[in-house]
Structures are given as structure tokens and as C-alpha cells.
């Protein structure tokens, strides 16, 4: 028996830029992690919950954090790339 994911939901999203914070030497410890983490803003849909799998640009991501934005009825989603 093979475990397989099927598409349950599709929506439009805006990818947010993540900025690097460098120390005095110009090196950031987070540089290695930023390539595996994405942040998106989407409309507030009840179907969006933590620990869902997301496909973006042919890569699989795990939905780590859902951050509701009350003032504009949207969600900030933090995705972490799944190593395959």
C-alpha cells in the first residue's frame, strides 16, 4: 500500500519576501534555513489548517504556521520545504 496525497484545495497567494538579518561580520545563521522556508499571504479560508502539505513550483512544503491577519481577513502561511 502506498501513501499518496491528493489535491483538496487550490487558492491564489502572494509570496512575501523574507529579509536576512546579518551580524557585524555580514553572516547570518538563518541563511541556510531561508531557502527552505516560504511565507505566503492568502485569503482567510476555513480549509487552511496547520500541518497540511502544499505544492509550490513542483516542490512539496509542510504548512508550519498559520497566522491570522484580522484587519484584512487574510492569513500568513509559513511553509517549510520537505526534503525528498
Order of helices and strands: EHEEEE
The low-confidence runs, each spanning 5 or more residues with pLDDT under 50, are none
Helix content: under 10%
Kindly estimate the percentage of residues that lie in beta strands according to DSSP.
35-45%
What structural class is derived from the secondary structure elements?
A: mainly beta
Number of helices: 1
Biggest β-sheet description: 5 strands, antiparallel
End-to-end Cα distance, whole Å, is 19 Å
Highlighted features:
5% helix, mainly beta, 5-stranded antiparallel beta sheet, 84 residues
Describe this structure in words.
The protein is mainly beta and 84 residues long. The chain has a domain at 33-75. The protein is 5% helix and 39% strand. It has one helix spanning 31-34, and strands spanning 14-16, 37-43, 53-56, 59-69, 74-81. The chain has a five-stranded antiparallel β-sheet, with no helix packed on it. A hairpin with a 2-residue loop joins strand 3 (53-56) and strand 4. The radius of gyration is 15 Å and the shape is globular. The two termini are 19 Å apart. The model has no long low-confidence stretch (mean pLDDT 83).
Amino acid at each position: 500500500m502506498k501513501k499518496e496525497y491528493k489535491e483538496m484545495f487550490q487558492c491564489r497567494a502572494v509570496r512575501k519576501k523574507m529579509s536576512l538579518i546579518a551580524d557585524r561580520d555580514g553572516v547570518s545563521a538563518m541563511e541556510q534555513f531561508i531557502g527552505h522556508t516560504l511565507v505566503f499571504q492568502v485569503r482567510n479560508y476555513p480549509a487552511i489548517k496547520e500541518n497540511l502539505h502544499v505544492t509550490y513550483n513542483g516542490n512539496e512544503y509542510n504548512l508550519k504556521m498559520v497566522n491570522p491577519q484580522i484587519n484584512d481577513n487574510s492569513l500568513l502561511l509559513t511553509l517549510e520545504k520537505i526534503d525528498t
